[in-house]
Amino acid sequence: MTSAHTNDEGLRLGLFYPSTTGLHVVSRTVAERNPDAFDPDVQIRLAQACEEVGLDYLFVADRWASYGERCTANGFQDPMWYAPILTGALAAATRKIAIVTTAHTTYHEPGNIAAMGASIDQLSGGRWGINIVTGFSPNEAGLFGMGQIEHDRRYEMADDYLGAMKHLWSGDLTGYQGQFYNVPPGVGSPRPLQREPLVISAGASPAGQAFAAKHADWMFMSAADSKEMTDKIENVNNMAAGFGRPKGSIRVMLHASLIVRESDDEAEAAAEEIKSQVDLEGAREFVSELMGGMDTMRQNFGSLEERERLLRVGSRGAARPLFGSPRTVVEKIVEMHRDFNCRGIAFSLPLWSPEILRSHMSDILPLLAETGIWRSPFDRGWTW
Amino acid sequence: MGIQLYGKQVLSDLTLTHGSGGNLMGLPLERLGIDFIVLGGRAPGETFIDVSGGASVVPVAASALCVLAPKINIITRLSPWCLKPAHIARIGANLDRLSRGRWQLLLDFADTSYAAVAPSMAELSDFAFEVIDTIHGHWRGPVDHDGHFVRSVGRIVGPRPEDPLPKILIELPPEAIEYAGALSDRISGIVVESGNVKSSAGMQDLLHSPVVVRDTTMAANAIVDTLALPADRRPIAGTADSVCDQLMDLMAKANTGNLVVSFPALTTNEIRLFAESLAPQLRPSTTANDIGMEC
Question: pLDDT tens digits for A304-362?
């Protein structure tokens, strides 16, 4: 099965994959309630559960260096599976679900990611997509003997990087000469099974939006209200038209944190309990680096009182809350689809296991199907 | 005793799965009792930069095999020219964890790409020291290495490899073998091509021999003639029995019980002939060796 790009109005659901001990909650206490993320059997069972319940994709994040000692002590995104390796394994263990690998353009040669990605695409039968990040952490650059590269320049490099990568994937052996990257004549890469694997990006800055307009199929976005989101997506799609891309080429993806209980009160209480277990010092390290490196974080959380900011970001990152009974959660998803033009949701589970995932999805997906905004991929096919 | 797949063969193996990892060649090899698989050899004349070298195909193939094949040991040949030590260290730590300690690293310093970075054999040796020390450093914790060839500062995120640390094998150009002894406290062995056995540095070498196995010697030789390979990479060719005898002689000459064979003209039947005829005869001399290939 090759994942086709359909650009329909239907919703795609995926799991922000727990490739680490603590993915979005800075808390050792919470992390210890979850299974061992570094047990390969756990990872395989979770991926297979995602496929069996009818999720569309697994979204695997990546990070090269810790946010700081306290974050590491909490298991927060350190340790973390190297995304191309984990996604290779998950591709081998599944048959239908799409798999997204996060890759840092700044720290790899285009040929490396081109070949890794094409390999995963071949191995998976055309189910692979790439989430492009440029890397904003000074701790990461040093690992590769580099200094930190200025924000907008990283996106210029990423643009050139995608140019080189797509050139390699095209099978053209005439060479590529870019501003930052060269591919000598005669050098090629394995070719992906999909002609153009899916590209996701999340850059909210003008440079990040320009990059998305040129290359992305999906874009992670955040906005305070419906109007802001509509303006943002319209703006990016207008920019995309300037690159000759068809109207509506870029679809909005939102990140949401999912807690489902029988009643809204129980779900809110569970969310509050998780929030109360956030390690504030660890969260401070995390927030400090995010606020220093990401425009979106400054815009969304800069005005909050510090403790509230640490608790909120430390308990769910920048994710929207999807807390409630199954019916409430579905209502919130419908709102996101209707008011925020949201066509994709990558949800993270603060408390997760293959069994929790199955339970949540069996509660939510039948109700969501009734709304008509989502159809099971078992019925419509697995498409981007 | 193991089997090496060239980069091109690794890629074909992935390509032919068509979304079904269960078709990977490593699985039948495991069932046949092969001790280890080396992913990503370079065919004669290839460099890692060439498409068929598959420098970055190998880690993906290895990750798939780690979860699909529960027993076979996995060696990945990675290029220090294409990947930085931090990349290699993290790929390795992940594969080691994913395979539950069945993984080893083969660093290929023999690729002709080295000439641009380290023109002399002494410089190549210095480069190898820096690369290996930096990888080991990342497996243990923070690194602060500011060398002539490698600069890396900081700590990669975990997971760390299983304890003890994964073994590192290296391949050097024949003219640099004399430097291998100086690296002996850092590595578990070197790969020696069957055409260069005399150059062995005397460590626990992994003898690599390309082979062509056919039903008749004439058929095997006819295949070899079409390959147009340099003398030092010329495969041992013949029937299963004759190839076996020649391999045994080579292993005795190289004073090693560790053998990896590759198949430049690979056919499915060849793997079967190898497994049914050769493997049972060769295995007793290999599994007790301390290079760490035991299942």
Answer: 898 999 999 999 998 999 999 999 999 999 999 999 989 999 999 999 999 999 999 99
Render pLDDT for B150-177 as a digit per residue (tens, 0 to 9). 999 999 999 999 888 999 999 988 888 8
Flag if B67 and A40 touch (Cβ within 8 Å): yes
Residue B99 DSSP label:
T
- Within 160-189 of B, beta carbons closer than 8 Å to A belong to 160
Q: Are A341 and A330 in contact (CB under 8 A)?
A: no
- Cβ contacts of B271 within 8 Å, gap of 6 or more: B3, B25, B28, B29, B32, B263
Give CA separation, A109 vs A140, A172, A214, B110, B128, in Å: 15, 18, 20, 21, 21
| pLDDT per position as a tens digit, A99-110 | 999 999 999 999
A27 half-sphere exposure, CB direction, 13 A CA radius: 24
Closest chain B residue to A173 measured between Cα atoms? B51
Instruction: Determine if residue A135 is left, alpha or beta; phi over 0 gives left, psi from -120 to 50 gives alpha, anything else beta.
Output: left
CA separation for the pair B60, A101 (Å, rounded): 12
Q: Nearest CA to CA, how far is B77 from chain A (Å)?
A: 15
Return d(Cα A219, Cα A202) in angstroms, integer: 5
Task: With CA atoms as reference, report the closest residue to A117 among B59, B293, B271, B126.
Answer: B59
Residue in the structure block whose two tokens are 């909005």: A252
B18 in the Ramachandran plot: left (φ > 0), alpha (ψ -120 to 50) or beta? left
Interface of B with A in 241-260 (CB under 8 A): none
One-letter amino acid of A241 = A
Contact call for B64 and A92, based on CB within 8 A: yes
Reported pTM: 0.94
Of A314, A285, A309, A284, nearest in space to A299 by CA: A309
- Chain B residues whose beta carbon lies within 8 Å of the beta carbon of residue A183: none
Residue from A203, A210, A207, A229 nearest A131 by CA? A203
Mutate which: B48, B67, B68, B91, vs A, most A CBs within 10 A:
B67
Using a CB-CB distance cutoff of 8 angstroms, which residues of chain A are in contact with residue B156?
A: 64-65, 143
DSSP-based three-state secondary structure for A369: helix
Sequence-separated (6 or more) residues with CB below 8 Å from residue B226? B265
Helix (H, G, I), strand (E, B) or coil at A89: helix
CA A235 to chain CA centroid, nearest Å: 22
Whether B110 contacts B172, CB under 8 Å: yes
Please state whether the peptide bond connecting residue A246 to the residue before it is cis, i.e. omega within 30 degrees of 0. no
What's the Cα-to-Cα distance from A141 to each of A107, A131, A148, A152, B142, rounded to whole Å? 7, 19, 6, 16, 14
Question: Who's near A11: CB < 8 A, 6+ residues apart?
Answer: A333, A337, A342, A343, A344, A345, A368, A373, A374
The answer to whether the CB atoms of A126 and B94 lie below 8 A apart is: no
End-to-end CA distance of chain A: 12
Across the interface, which of A1, A79, A84 has its CB nearest the CB of B60?
A84
Most A CBs within 10 Å, among B63, B87, B160, to test the A interface: B63
ipTM of the complex: 0.95
Query: For residue B75, which of B121, B106, B108, B32 has the smallest C-alpha distance?
Result: B106
Take residue B288 and report the two structure tokens written for it. 């007790």
Amino acid letter, residue A329: V
Q: Max CA-CA distance within chain B?
A: 58
